[in-house]
Amino acid sequence: MCGIVGILGREKAAPLVVEALKRLEYRGYDSAGVATLEDGHITRLRAEGKLRNLANKLDTHPLKGTIAIGHTRWATHGKPTANNAHPHATDKLAVVHNGIIENFRELRKMMEGEGIVFKTETDTEVVAQLVTRELATTNDPRTAVARALPQLRGAFALAFIFEGEPDLMIGARQGAPLAVGHGDGEMYLGSDALALAPFTDTITYLDDGDWVVLTRTDHDFRDAKNNKVARKTQKTSAGAFLVDKGNHRHFMAKEIHEQPEVVGRTLAHYLDMAKAEVALPFTLPFDWKDLTRLTISACGTAYLAGYIAKYWFERYARLPVEIDVASEFRYREAPLPEKGLALFISQSGETADTLAALRYAKENGQKILSVVNVTTSTIARESDIIAPILSGPEIGVASTKAFTCQLAVLACLAISAGVARGTLGRDEAARLVNELILTPGRISEALHREPAIRDIAQRLTKATDVLYLGRGTAYPLALEGALKLKEISYIHAEAYAAGELKHGPIALIDEKMPVIVIAPHDPLYEKTISNMQEVAARGGNIILIAEDEAAEQSGLAGIAHVAMPAMATDFAAIPYAVPVQLLAYWTAFLLGKDVDQPRNLAKSVTVE
Ligand code: F6R
Description:
It is built from 19 helices and 26 strands. The protein is an alpha/beta fold. An 8-stranded antiparallel beta sheet has the order 3-2-4-1-10-9-11-14. The protein has a 6-stranded antiparallel beta sheet with strand order 5-6-7-8-12-13, covered by helices on one side. A hairpin with a 4-residue loop joins strand 12 and strand 13 (about 220). About 55% of the residues are buried. Fructose -6-phosphate binds near residues 399, 483 and 604.
């Protein structure tokens, strides 16, 4: 979602802010802006659309101040226009904001009643006006912010600069992440370590409810009750990750192609390959044997990784699994078992709904295990134990390598649970581990199918609706395929369990409707192929993702076939994710869509 960068520096800060914002582009945004102080006065530049529009404005109107705050906005309240773009300003201050101020209507009404005139449709302007209103009674920006913050409800990260105060920046966080970067005679604020990587590797994260007063040489951290607090400063490795596309056109393509390597690295972290055993790199604060149920919750692609893992936990560990999307789970008032385990999956570790679901589970006495990519994230910090997926930063908005790395970690956890619960014998566990060890190679082989997938994607470019079918773990993978296609190509897609076809969706089948059938060679294969025959009998336009011989065996002439390598099927969902991702990627590419930053979407969804 929105990105924040603040610099209290020694050189012209606005161009540096705009450059740093580019590292946050992946989060998704639709307008951008920067504010600085010129001769003590607030000066802003804002632009609709991509950062290059802001950079062009900055070229024609250079800003010379050495203090600046900048923002990429993902619109929630008010259209993505230049006027609604951040920073929002009054004659006393400028502010940038991530998140949502839930009580902005009441606050706005209250201030309008006092004669204050609002210039935008945003919730954020309320913050600017509220702090300015406090400044009318205290001339001190620190006191004004301290008085205004408790009046705000919602999720926010904020950064302020003040008229006539070239050595002062104030940050605040509640719900949305914010980090302070420490430089040599310089200070920074950023919504993640990646944004600050060009400036510093020394970072302090604000805790929820914290706010901080920064000068170039000092910092003063306060908690929600305005008590002075110390927060841990840490070194980050964000700078070590090159945020570039390598030889690829898009981050998404690069991330799809990285999968053999990153999944291999993740597995190496969780497996003792020589002994063919799972060797978790941490000690669990619970015993799998004691569990009566596992509760999994997440959003989007991370949820679908959990859905696939449900099959593995149930099959290998005989552990009943309850899974729900976090936005429903958090409000369902689900009863949770005593001393139960709740598992959360999140690439960013900042997804608001997943975090709220985690807090609900914690309040209800669950141990919290989280499978995350960003190990410094809020979800990571609030968990009892984290299982890192180690995929490296994922920049493309559509999740790819994080998905397969999540699956790799979840597979290891499921095997480990099976061994601990005595439901998997040593030999069977070793067989499963050996299957996992072969997975990176199978992902590579699947990537070799790319030219054929590109040709098949050409068919999808003409479709307005696409149906995905699968059984077993191929069903949640079908859901993932439909999600991927929708989000980057904007083609309507749906997924069904293949067995559900005749309970309704078969009515949709005609020669115009592409039907993507995901059929690894597992015990359900024959049944999936029978469902495919039902589609063929109604003239459906079939695209089969299955092993080499499958198309021929089906006896159906002329169907499109992504021929997958032969493999045992326990963890086939991992290599089978590759053609699913590539089909979406090439369809979007051939349609000329913005693959890495699809419209309306954000990478890290920090609002409900
Ligand atoms: C889809 C996608 C989203 C995310 C979802 C959860 O490609 O990326 O559906 O999976 O927003 O995000 P995280 O994993 O950061 O909690």
